[in-house]
Amino acid sequence: MYKVIIKEGKDRTIRRHHPWVFSGAIDRIEPKYTEAGWAETYSSTGLFIAYGWYDEKSHIILRLISWKKKDNPSDELVKKLVREAVERRRAFFSLPDTTAFRLIHGDADYLPGVAADVYGKEIRVIVSSRFAEHFLPVIASELDRLLHPSVIEAVTDKQFAGLEGMSERIRHFRKGEETKEDESRDNVRFIENGIWYEAAPGKGQKSGFYCDQRDNRAIIEGYAKGRTVLDLFSYTGGFTLHALRGGALSVDAVDSSESALRHLLYQVHLNEDKEVLPENSREKVNIYPSDAFQWLRDSQDGKYEMMILDPPKLAKTKSSLENAMKAYKDLNRVAMMKIKNGGIIATFSCSGAMSRDDFRLMLGWAASDANAEIQILRTLSAGEDHPVRISFPESEYLKGFVIRVIK
């Protein structure tokens, strides 16, 4: 095991249990680094701080796992953290109308770079760190032992593959062992808030579906009745489906991926067939494969009474926050200018580098530039299966507001 000594004055945040240690905070490591491995972390005065995983090929050189001296850094500790994460979601396994939710939420569950979601009988893991890649077989084995899924599919997060020096790949585990993909494997079906979804194996963004918006989709449904709706960055249409069930007059869905939009239409048909959506819901939906920013600029003034703005992560790091703030501001400014007076906008950011206060400030700037007033009706975040760890504010990555625009 390595011994890592932190520079004087650089241990304040990690003493408060922030899990990330960058190379500039490290005074020395003993013995000399050869390969990734467990490390004891000490202050400059020799006091124990935490156990972590040290890897000089990672963009976060030391990821802290446990601040308990009694813990034994090992595969068994990783298994214990998996068990505890699953146990914390016990209530989700008995929900009557939802079979999709998050099992492991990365550093918020003390497992850096590991995001695991349940979709019906399958589990999908998003790997975004070298730690997660190294311990994936251990994590998959423990998840299989606890839950017995039909398959565990692990996908490397494209956004972090380059940063972490990982190759992009998809791996599969059955009965605790890594296996080859079953080419005849069917799409997985699951329900969320009573609405049916279907995801193809190894397809789509990250895990193929975003569980973090579950509560927000249900909230937005309550505003849709009798409104013309724009679902911008719609992906496969979770918000569209809820708007239709909520009684929207029409929904225009815009996304850069035509295949995602085609799948959106399929899911509208699926829910009509299951009598979850009203008859003729398909006739209320139009899809537009397009750049969402440009499409919004070109849209008709006053056409929409409700807009949903759910863009991809625009601020991937703190260094990119300034440019991202400008992009978020431009998006929301144009939406405020285009929406009908008194209209509702549900606007989101999934950028961990942007705080909720930053996001709220940006909305104020956008409203000023749009010569509009806004009223905040609801403050939105991810569901409780995506907990926010108070010592790790970056875990509050998803934030949103429902606003009314007055012009």
UniProtKB/TrEMBL annotation:
CDD domains xrefs: AdoMet_MTases, PUA_RlmI, RlmI_M_like
The keyword Cytoplasm is annotated on this UniProt entry: yes
Subcellular location, record wording: Cytoplasm
One Gene Ontology term of the molecular function aspect: methyltransferase activity
Chief location: cytoplasm
Domain S-adenosylmethionine-dependent methyltransferase: 183-348
Pfam family, one: PUA_3
One GO biological process term: methylation
Protein name: Class I SAM-dependent rRNA methyltransferase
Species per Swiss-Prot/TrEMBL record: Candidatus Ornithospirochaeta stercoripullorum
